[in-house]
Design brief:
two-stranded antiparallel sheet, 52% helix, mainly alpha, 106 residues
């Protein structure tokens, strides 16, 4: 999240810890789901989760040349699988890579 804040120079995203999610967002998902992975609530009403949310963020930040092909089947399934693995190992990866809790919040 810290990296996204640095790269979002145009203020495209409002980054909110899931514990502080506004009630109107909780009407579209659950607190439990928010705790399991990154979510994007797009202006057009879509709710993107996990790997697809990461791909959307990359697209908005100008990495479409990379994210567009990865958004297509079967590559998007691989992105989702990698996201799932990284999300489950986030704590260990943070320790191994020496990323602080403020840079990679739970």
């Amino acid at each position: 999240m810290a990296r996204l804040r640095r790269q979002d120079t145009h203020g495209l995203f409002q980054i909110v810890p899931y514990q502080l999610a506004p009630a109107e967002l909780l009407e579209r998902t659950t607190a439990d789901a928010l705790g399991r992975g990154v979510h994007v609530f797009a202006a057009d009403g879509r709710v993107l989760r996990g790997g697809r949310a990461v791909l959307f963020i990359g697209e908005q930040l100008g990495y479409g040349w990379l994210t567009r092909p990865l958004s297509l089947p079967p590559l998007v399934w691989g992105v989702e699988a990698v996201y799932w693995i990284v999300a489950r190992l986030r704590g260990k990866l943070s320790r191994w890579l020496r990323i602080s809790e403020t840079e990679c919040p739970r």
